[in-house]
Amino acid sequence: MVDADTASAAPATALAAWDLLGGRPGTVYAMHIGYAARAAQKGRTPEAPGYFLKTATSLAAPAPVEGETDPATVVELPAGAEILGFEGEIALVIGRGGRRISPEDAWGHVAAVTAANDLGAFDFRRADKGANVRSKGGDGFTPIGPTLLPAAQIDPADIEIRTWKDGELVQADSTSTQLFSLREIVADLSQLITLVEGDVILTGTPAGASTFLPGERVEVEVSAGELSTGRLVTTSVRGTEPVIGVSAQPKATPEQWADASGRPLSDFTEPEAPVLTPELRERLGRVALATLSSALRKKGLDNVSIDGLRSTQPGTTMIGTVRTLRYVPNREDLFRSHGGGYNAQKRLFDSLREGDVLVMDARQQDRSGTLGDILALRARHLGAAGIVTDGGVRDLDEVTEIGIPTFHAGGHPAVLGRLHVPWGIDETIACGGTSVQPGDIIVGGGDGVLVIPPALVEEVVAEAEVQEEQEAFIARMVDEGHPVDGLFPMNTEWKARFEAERSGAGTSGSAGASS
């Protein structure tokens, strides 16, 4: 591995790529989103191919590097920058130019296929407003190679790509899952632009692209049958020369960290002070669900119960902060683009935090599962406080055994795709007949499930505690023989007796009280 502090190799540029490409490199075109799993990860699926341009000097071929056993490309992370993103990609090298090429003829214009690493210094993205000129156009920011595979010997619909970070496989996909075929990509670009010999087209990255630090190693390999490019090795060093004052300065924002790494934004932001503190959680656990419902009704909130569900853990109280997931009705094309891979459901389960309760809007359709044992295990491992779905649960016996409280509409063996497409994360949803928002406080027990607006939870708990004290007082008075008339509910005299006892001014609520 290259020593990030002492590496002597200068960042490679297009000069090193000339021999590989057989001449001066041409224009570099790069796709925004090319694979179905990447679209699901990003939460958006393009209707048509979309591109940005990279500079010819961003191209770099591997070369011998001191300290490396294999040829490698060494890229410079600009001084002051922190976020270096990698994206393994299949690159096409145009061998015969043309304009308005048809999809049927497009593969004949491709001379070679190779591996590429679409690198980006994400600290500069805010200044380019989506153009990626500086963030992805820097010298050496498009390593390619190490060998070219002849396109004429390759089926463009059956090419595989894999990426490793420090030896761990992090990306694996094939052109069979691309949203637009390689033929369509070449044809599409040529409709308004004349492609020329030597142009390079990056065809998008699969799910799993992330970030790496100076000293870490990224390898990309493209294969087709028995043909392989070999592994394209990329390492990096920290730059020492800052950009001049007039230039946009690097700025690592939480949004760019999240975008580059593929991780949730919450991983890079300081969490707000929780509404549901341990003390408040304990107080909620001491009052009955029915009492909380009465307190909410006094606040004018009648429609806050999630109805028709049963619990996998009867006798257990569930208390937590809401995260939401919305399913839409299954439509085959939408499930292909949003249902597989690292979809919204899996992303949300992976982002759960301690004390979260995941609430799912399955449109009260119980003829399909909305989660199973694997996801329940993930939620338990992350410390989630519970799961609520107005749909079905697969592997219900196993989910019950896992132990995380799960309120559901019943068990069902069918997979998600029978009825549902996972769609929206952390938005207002409907579940079991009530509206639920991220950040709401949720309490579940033997009487059902209640949703409490976070702005009201302190008041609701305080009122519920007083009501519980009143009901305990009333129960004791009834047990002592007093009739319920005037006592339940308490009239003015009984209220005065209760307040006196509560404040310690009286000795017994029964003395002198009458019906």
Structure summary:
By secondary structure, this protein is α+β, with helices and mostly antiparallel strands. The chain is built from 15 helices and 27 strands. The strands form five sheets. Strands 17, 18, 19, 20, 21, 22, 23, 26 and 27 form a nine-stranded mixed sheet that branches. It has a seven-stranded mixed sheet with strand order 2-1-12-6-7-9-3. Strands 4, 10, 11, 14, 15 and 16 form a six-stranded mixed sheet that branches.
Describe the protein's architecture and organization.
α9 crosses α14 (457-479) and α12 runs parallel beside α13. It is elongated, with a radius of gyration of 30 Å. Strands 17, 18, 19, 20, 21, 22, 23, 26 and 27 form a 9-stranded mixed beta sheet that branches. A 7-stranded mixed beta sheet has the order 2-1-12-6-7-9-3. Strands 4, 10, 11, 14, 15 and 16 form a 6-stranded mixed beta sheet that branches. It folds into 2 domains: 14-257, Fumarylacetoacetate hydrolase, domain 2 (Alpha-Beta Complex), CATH 3.90.850; 302-452, Ribonuclease E inhibitor RraA/RraA-like (Glucose Oxidase, domain 1, 3-Layer(bba) Sandwich), CATH 3.50.30. The chain is built from 15 helices and 27 strands. Helix content is 24%, strand content 25%. The chain is α+β, with helices and mostly antiparallel strands and 515 residues long.
